[in-house]
Amino acid sequence: MKNKIPTHVGIIMDGNGRWATRQGLKRTDGHYAGYKRLKQTALHILSKGVKVLSVFAFSTENFGRSEEEVSYLMSLFVKAFKSDKKFFIKNNIKVVFSGRHEPLSDEVWNVMREIEESTKDCTGGVFNFCINYGGQSEIVDASKTIAKLYKEDKISLDEIDTNTFYKYLYNDLPPIDLLIRTSGEIRISNFMLYSISYSELYFTSTCFPDFDEIEFDKALDDYQSRNITKGKIK
Ligand code: FPP
């Protein structure tokens, strides 16, 4: 349908390292450029009427990168979530996080909780940062939550179906309508597996630090040109 706006957009922000290396910069410079780009493009995406934006900022596997890169990203998270609190409040954006606590440091964890708390009443869109996140782990953790509630007689099995299952994920968000991956890789890499069941997929060779408003509009045009059936009538 022309002009249909996706409710939930997901982005696998890939290619920061390659973007930096191609310009003779350090990989960490690429992450900083990605962070700057994210703030700018995110506002544009939400201004289009998208209600939820989920981004893959750090996977559970990313802890396997060099000590320098991991500690750079962790300190970027701390600095950004401290200094951007005003930015999110000013733009009326509610910030949430998806992912496991361990092995994130308390410093990172606390700053994440703090910005969630400060923006919890914002109503102009939700920004879901996936940090120390894995899609399979999310489904396992949701299943454990359900098992615990069942054991405590707090839910019945009849209450669990494919729609109510979302409630037990890290955040109760609508399914992803449009999933974008930058940098030319054509894979999902364990990102929001439950939520992307019926997503439209968009892959671009543009590296994330160059993924600007024009690049997002191309993805949106492509989405709007598709015949989205979600398995129903064509
Ligand atoms: C993948 O590119 C990107 C990451 C592992 C990190 C993404 C993080 C950001 C964009 C910063 C976000 C900042 C905040 C504060 C949320 P890559 O490094 O794997 O690129 P490559 O495949 O070219 O090496």
Structure description:
This protein has seven helices and six strands, in the order βααβααβαβαββα. The mean pLDDT is 97. The chain is 40% helix and 15% strand. The chain has a single domain (8-224), classed as Undecaprenyl pyrophosphate synthetase, CATH 3.40.1180.10. It has a six-stranded parallel sheet with strand order 3-4-2-1-5-6, sandwiched between helices. The protein has helices spanning 16-22, 27-47, 67-83, 85-90, 106-118, 135-151, 213-224; strands at 8-12, 52-59, 94-98, 126-133, 178-181, 200-203. It is α/β, with parallel strands linked by helices and 234 residues long. Helix 5 links the parallel strand 3 and strand 4. Helix 2 runs parallel beside helix 3 (67-83).
Quick summary:
Helices cover 40% and strands 15% of the residues. It contains seven helices and six strands; from the N terminus they run E-H-H-E-H-H-E-H-E-H-E-E-H.
Keywords:
single chain; alpha/beta; Undecaprenyl pyrophosphate synthetase; six-stranded parallel sheet; 7 helices; globular; binds farnesyl diphosphate
Count of DSSP strands: 6
Reading the helices and strands in chain order gives EHHEHHEHEHEEH
CATH class: Alpha Beta
Largest sheet: 6 strands, parallel
Q: By helix and strand content, what is the structural category?
A: alpha/beta
CATH topology label: Undecaprenyl pyrophosphate synthetase
How many independent structural domains?
1
